[in-house]
Design brief:
This protein is α+β, with helices and mostly antiparallel strands and 230 residues long. The chain contains 5 helices and 10 strands; from the N terminus they run E-H-E-E-E-H-E-E-E-H-H-E-E-E-H. Strand 5 and strand 6 form a beta hairpin.
Length: 230
């Protein structure tokens, strides 16, 4: 089962009031190795913003890491994405590793790895830089795919907004271990333990309208996510 805590590095982010963990702070991690590994393994993040009308909105989307920056993208016509440009956002990423079944309902939990990032993303306005960022996003989603398909056209690039968010105010939080029950419940006749959670990917399914007789490309046939660190 995945979920082993990554080995910290010396590259540690400074804690802020927003990233300080107030509940079970010993689960907090602020080194880039841990934060980056969770970002790279996850497929989806959630972006929290306050829109132009002052209402909170959370958007699920694909993401990619480019060094110390997080890349986000969407339609250039998206009102919500426009609201995120130059505004304060909160990005969350979560990986579930197992359900934790305790002897009492109160102590049920989950083993997880999560990252929270705060900051103000900037839109990439140069066409060449945006094209390179879109390739990074494709590669993060399907490694090897960017070299299998035709490049984006200028119109496609300009129809897509790509935002760059520095990973400078962030924290990771990890739970990894067995259930923690109260001593008075330890002799209860109730099973306790972990139910592992595993994400698997099936065999590629060829599109019905494929006009050439081709096997699945290597990026699809050999698809896998980055292995958990540790």
């Amino acid at each position: 089962m995945s979920g082993a805590e990554p080995t910290p590095s010396d590259d540690r982010l400074e804690t802020t009031d927003r990233t300080t963990l107030r509940r079970i702070p010993e689960r907090g991690h602020f080194d880039r190795d841990t934060i980056n590994a969770i970002i790279d393994e996850a497929l989806v993040c959630h972006v929290g913003i306050v829109d132009d009308d002052g209402r909170p909105v959370v958007i699920p989307t694909f993401h990619a890491r480019d060094g110390d920056d997080l890349l986000l993208h969407g339609s250039a016509a998206s009102r919500l994405l426009r609201s995120a440009r130059n505004a304060e956002v909160c990005v969350t990423i979560t990986l579930l590793d197992s359900l934790v079944l305790a002897r009492t309902a109160f102590h049920h939990s989950a083993n997880y790895r999560s990252v929270v990032i705060f900051g103000s993303p900037k839109q990439i306005t140069d066409d060449d830089d945006a094209a390179a960022a879109l390739d990074i996003l494709v590669e993060a989603l399907v490694p090897g795919r960017a070299t299998e398909v035709r490049p984006n056209t200028r119109n496609e690039i300009r129809a897509t907004a790509v935002l760059r968010l520095p990973i400078s105010e962030a924290s990771a939080k990890i739970r990894n271990g067995p259930p923690v029950d109260d001593e008075e419940d330890m002799d209860a006749p109730v099973w306790a333990g972990l139910v592992p959670i595993q994400t698997t990917f099936g065999e590629p399914i060829t599109a019905d309208d494929l006009r050439v007789d081709l096997p699945p490309s290597p990026s699809a046939a050999n698809y896998q996510r980055p292995a958990p660190a540790g």
